[in-house]
Hints:
heterodimer, A: mainly beta, 7-stranded mixed beta sheet, 4-stranded antiparallel beta sheet, B: mainly beta, 11 strands, 50% strand, globular
Amino acid sequence: AVQLVESGGGLVQPKESLKISCAASGFTFSNAAMYWVRQAPGKGLEWVARIRTKPNNYATYYADSVKGRFTISRDDSKSMVYLQMDNLKTEDTAMYYCTAETTHWGQGVMVTVSS
Amino acid sequence: IQLTQSPSLLSASVGDRVTLSCKGSQNINNYLAWYQQKLGEAPKLLIYKTNSLQTGIPSRFSGSGSGTDYTLTISSLHSEDLATYYCYQYNNGWTFGGGTKLELK
């Protein structure tokens, strides 16, 4: 069965950095575009970032709200996808979901940015 | 592309036929999906490419639409269908609608 498990969340102060991870299993990871989607407390879903596959040169895409601050990456040898978040803002506080092709989703990891 | 879902809150009874709407600010070219999210859970894909039912999803769920206007229909509401539903376009960038919360009347 497909499984996506996020980790690395926590409480950080504004302007700090945090890297969250997602471990994938149960499918051919190297063939799947991977995404991060977030959900602020009590709010709707927001697409954050996308990374394509090796044949597509690992092209990356970002929401305007995080462009220049967040970096998505992947390690196909480990079936892992990452989100490096720099210069965090209070409005980045959310549950962050890892998703494969937006079809299969992890349970999410909470990131709280507060002083 | 921005997506507007209506209504934002829908009250219905078990057995009702329920219709949820999603309108795009531009042509979505049928690259429209629907997700169900129950409280405290991750979203679940129900429908992709406007009307394709994801594996394992009950046939009471169906999708339709074209251009800028799309619909999710639940033919006969079950109590376990109470959730928030999001539409999602992947034609030009990637955008979620604001959601429709479905509650029991």
